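User: I'm designing a mutation panel for Alkanesulfonate monooxygenase and want to avoid disrupting the core. Could you give me a predicted structure to guide residue selection? Please restate the sequence first so the numbering is unambiguous.

Assistant: Good idea. Sequence first, for numbering, then the predicted structure tokens:
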Amino acid sequence: MSTPEFDPTIPETAAREVEFISLSHLNPSTELEPVPSRGIDLPYFRRYVKALEDGGYDYTLLPYGSGTADSFVVASAVGQLTERIKPIVALRPNTTFPLVAAQKLATLDQLTEGRAVVHLISGGSDAEQARQGDYLPKERRYARTSEYIDLLRRAWTEPAPFDHHGEFYDFDGFGPGFAPYDSPIPISIGGQSDEAFAVGGEKADVFSFWGEPLDDLRGEIERVHAIARAAGRTTLPRIWVTFRPIVAATDALAWEKAHDYVARIAATFERGVFGKQLHQKGDPQNVGSQRALTFANASELYDRALWTKTAAATNAAGASTALVGSPETVAAAILDYVDRGADLVSIRGYDTLNDAVDYGKHVLPLVREELAHRMATGRRGTLQAEHLGGYTDEYRQLATAGRA
């Protein structure tokens, strides 16, 4: 892996402004130390949300699964426990009629004075969808999502009652619906299938990816933006990319932690005792997990700090690729993705609460300092030139030192 030549010129593809996302956890159970629980540890949840607010995060994702807490209710709690954090409701179209979802989201938006966001999950697993009675084939689920997006926006903006007779939804005389606080609520979708790109490029405000090698991700960004342009859009979807950083004071200490973590994560997955990992045996059906495993099988380490062994250990059960290193190395790696066009960066750890605190103290400020420097000078700072991570032999030796 050759060291890239540092150019202080800001790349044309670089995002000028970046916001940070985390994921809110309801109890102390983690992939490192699973705790048998199906409930909410309220004091823990309050501490977690406060840590996000204090740490300077902009958004938090409230995940959804057939056996998890309801994301709408949790999002409402986040809205009342914080002053600034924007709750992102993960929503499966099969679980909530679109006009009801529009009503619920607009209510959340009113209660939070314009902070609501929705992330639509079309469904990557037939088995998980069937647990709540959804037997629609995967390719048709994205067609349903497309119709769902149209109805959400109409429910928020139509000034008079309207009828709709579509492929998936049928009603007469709805509206006007309950309005959001100020403007239509941002709609995010993700996925790596052709159908996901088609719907996201044409209609989504945000398109989300898991952490991939830099050049591969840039190709995917160009793909979704090309679809948006072909659809006549003048405002392109924002790009959301997710990582699971493993951070310590130095690169060497971070790699000691990473090797320990992956062994513990693998043991948890093998026992099937954490969340949806219980259902993630066998070949994954969704394209995102398939891509993650392809990258993991080809190499454990990419670019400055992207580590795929955590994805391999979990059979790519959700976002699982790591960025490993000191705060400076990880911040520089995040900036590499910002330079490729990511303007929404989700970082959530394996040691959930402690990592959220550490990122807020040690990583986010470095990224924001660099972005402020760029804004003030029109040039890149030196962080990426000084903390090379995987572009050095020493770092790569640390990465392989714990290999079994």
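For picking mutation sites, this is relevant: The chain has a mean pLDDT of 93. DSSP finds 14 helices and 14 strands in the chain.
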